[in-house]
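Async update (no meeting this week)

Hi team, since we skipped the sync, here's where things stand on the single-chain job. The sequence we agreed to prioritize is pasted below, unchanged from the tracker. I ran it this morning and attached the output directly underneath so nobody has to dig for it. Comments welcome in thread, and please keep replies under the output.
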Amino acid sequence: MLRLLAIVLLAGPAVGSAAADTPAQSARSKKTRGELDEIHRIFKTGPTVDAAKQAKYRKKLDASWDSTRVWLTTYQQRGASITIRGGAAETNDVTQLLMRLAISKYFSDVTITETERKHDRATNVDYYAFAVTMKAPLADPKTKIGIKE
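Output:
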């Protein structure tokens, strides 16, 4: 799921475009890829850690956390403000994701804004839908992205 979002972002602007990116567009795209790459790292190997933030969460991070129990459905970015939405098998999975976002040097002010237990009738599975907002201090203020599953 996350890979699909990243591929759509990276391939999306160029599809159907006859003109090449300007240097400014290319620089913005590289910065945005930094945030998306960091989210991908969090799901695969772990965040790029800000040591000053890590101490707060060190004892709470579960080294055996299975990131495949969380999926993203939406990524929206306007300048330094990012909102992600998705689902998780359990509330602890959401908590583990939040802590990893919080200790990343790419993000600050990580806040859960919505969480709701839901039932998927097609698969007969219960899950937790969530929304998270955060800031990306390194982001280009002109960045505007909306990706939805």
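Quick observations from my side:
Residues 1-20 have pLDDT under 50 and may be disordered.
The chain has one domain: 2-13+22-148.
Reply here if anything looks off.
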